[in-house]
Amino acid sequence: MILPVVAFGHPVLRKVCDDITPDYPGLTKLIADMWDTVYNSNGVGIAAPQINKPIRLFVIDTVQVVDDFDDDDRKRYPNEKAIKQVFINAHIIEETGDTWAYNEGCLSIPHVREDIHRQAKVHLRYLDENFVAHEGHFHGITARVIQHEYDHIEGKLFIDYISGLKKRLMKKKLDDISSGKVKVDYRMIFPK
């Protein structure tokens, strides 16, 4: 089932989310619904707070991004390994590598994109959908998508990384999003 995406300004997007246990109600269906929602909205990932659940859960699929690399991207990210993965109770151990900029967007903040600087590598501990523990090292685009979705479960948004001046310049756009004056091809929940 395709779920509505929470829009900028909703308080759930600013909550530090809670770990969950294997008996979390309806978890298998929730994960399936998150996949349906991310694909319906042409995203590469979605975190539980974006569907109004303050829990440490996100899904990412970087396959489409890596498959669509042009020649320049293949040179820039020669060892990029695409993944499709569920992350439960993720906790970053370390972020390393050079900081680099990439133009990010977010399903909760439609029609806003900015160059965001993040470190090139992320090392994290997480559980998969079967609650099997993993520790993984990710780099490049995949690391960036993980960092973006991880921020959601920490109550952060990609726009938190931009300057105050840029935020002031985009205030009207953000106000329009939070008041429901935005058109998207997917359902949204707007703050009350």
TrEMBL record:
InterPro entries: Peptide_deformylase (IPR023635), Peptide_deformylase_sf (IPR036821). The keyword Protein biosynthesis applies. Fe cation binds at residues 106, 148, 152. It catalyses: N-terminal N-formyl-L-methionyl-[peptide] + H2O = N-terminal L-methionyl-[peptide] + formate. The active site is at residue 149. Its EC number is 3.5.1.88. It is an enzyme of class 3 (hydrolase). CDD domains: Pep_deformylase (cd00487). One of its GO terms (molecular function) is peptide deformylase activity. The keyword Lipid biosynthesis does not apply. Binds 1 Fe(2+) ion. Keywords: Hydrolase, Iron, Metal-binding, Protein biosynthesis. It comes from the Bacteria. One of its GO terms (biological process) is translation. Its cofactor is Fe(2+). Belongs to the polypeptide deformylase family. PANTHER family: PEPTIDE DEFORMYLASE. Removes the formyl group from the N-terminal Met of newly synthesized proteins. Requires at least a dipeptide for an efficient rate of reaction. N-terminal L-methionine is a prerequisite for activity but the enzyme has broad specificity at other positions. This is Peptide deformylase.
